[in-house]
Specification:
The strands form 3 sheets. Strands 3-4-5-8-7-6 form a 6-stranded antiparallel β-barrel. 54% of the residues are buried. Helix content is 14%, strand content 30%. The chain is α+β, with helices and mostly antiparallel strands. β11 and β12 (230-234) form a beta hairpin. The protein starts with 35 loop residues before the first strand and ends with a helix.
């Protein structure tokens, strides 16, 4: 689901073991090969990203896309603020302003955001990475209550860069005002290797009408195993929701759950009713681990 963010199939260093506090981890060994690709952004590039993404640009990027009305399975979130979820703005390989949804997660450096691979780079095109990335947690109708965090590194599976497989990414962000990301908004724990089943709450900022990416929306329903190492849930969120979190055991009073996947793609170009996300496997764990040290 990209909006110039979209859904990829419908539109368009050795890893360290995750500490128990970060969520369920898959076993890793010293012989595990590195299967990630990292892109870093210089301090001048990060300053340029902050200057690029004015409040006006952030509003324009959603209003400029015509994706039709918000679907009946998607609702506006009206519970406690989900401070960890926000919009990830970037400039794509064509030079177009665009965005995804992303989530602050627990990490050793307190600075990791997770989203879909197609929010970081074009699939199966190693040289086409995105630029001017910033993360705005808690974005709501132009409000940026916790600041704008520039991205200093993006990490994706090498299989995504080379073959368009395993649609997951992690981003390392700079502190804002001397405070790290998760010290500011908290972080969702991540579970790797969690099997399908149970109720999932998926969040996103789709660019459908009338919200146009300005408000946090969600779907909720049971997850099922799907082909190609994916999970599925009943949901009709569209472009702009890409990268948004799938939270198991979600508590609407605290805005916290456990991240088990992210929004990747739907089952049709129009009127999709099923949303798919990648299984967070050993590769996803390496992506997360690498971002902790970027």
């Amino acid at each position: 689901m990209r909006v110039a963010p979209a859904l990829p199939r419908t539109l368009a260093a050795l890893a360290l073991a995750v500490a128990p506090a970060l969520g369920t981890a898959l076993p890793a060994t010293a012989a595990t090969p590195d299967v990630t690709d990292t892109v870093t952004y210089t301090a001048p590039e990060r300053r340029a990203a902050l200057a690029h993404w004015t409040p006006a640009r952030m509003k324009e990027v959603g209003s400029a896309v015509g994706l039709g009305p918000t679907g009946p399975l998607t609702e506006k979130w009206a519970g406690a603020p989900v401070k960890t979820v926000g919009r990830l703005f970037f400039v794509n390989q064509k030079g177009d302003d665009t965005y995804c949804t992303a989530t602050a997660v627990r990490s050793g450096n307190h600075s990791v955001v997770m989203a879909a691979g197609h929010c970081a780079r074009l699939p199966a095109s190693p040289d086409n990475t995105y630029s001017d990335l910033v993360f705005v947690p808690g974005y709501d109708q132009g409000a940026r209550p916790y600041g704008v965090f520039p991205v200093r590194a993006s990490v994706t599976p090498r299989s995504w860069a080379q073959d368009g497989e395993n649609d997951i990414a992690a981003f390392t962000v700079d502190p804002v005002g001397g405070r790290s990301l998760t010290d500011t908004v908290g972080g969702q724990p991540v579970a790797f290797g969690r099997p399908a089943g149970g109720r999932i709450t998926a969040f996103g900022y789709p660019a459908t009408r009338p919200q146009r990416g300005e408000e946090l929306l969600y779907c909720a329903g049971p997850s099922k195993a799907a082909p190609r190492q994916e999970l599925s849930i009943p949901c009709d969120m569209s472009g702009g929701a890409s990268g948004g979190p799938w939270l198991a055991d979600f508590d609407p009073r605290t805005g916290l759950g456990t991240l088990v996947s992210v929004n990747s793609h739907g089952d049709a170009l129009d009127h999709s009713t099923t949303l798919y996300g990648p299984v967070l496997d050993v590769t996803a764990q390496q992506v997360h681990d690498r971002a902790q040290h970027a």
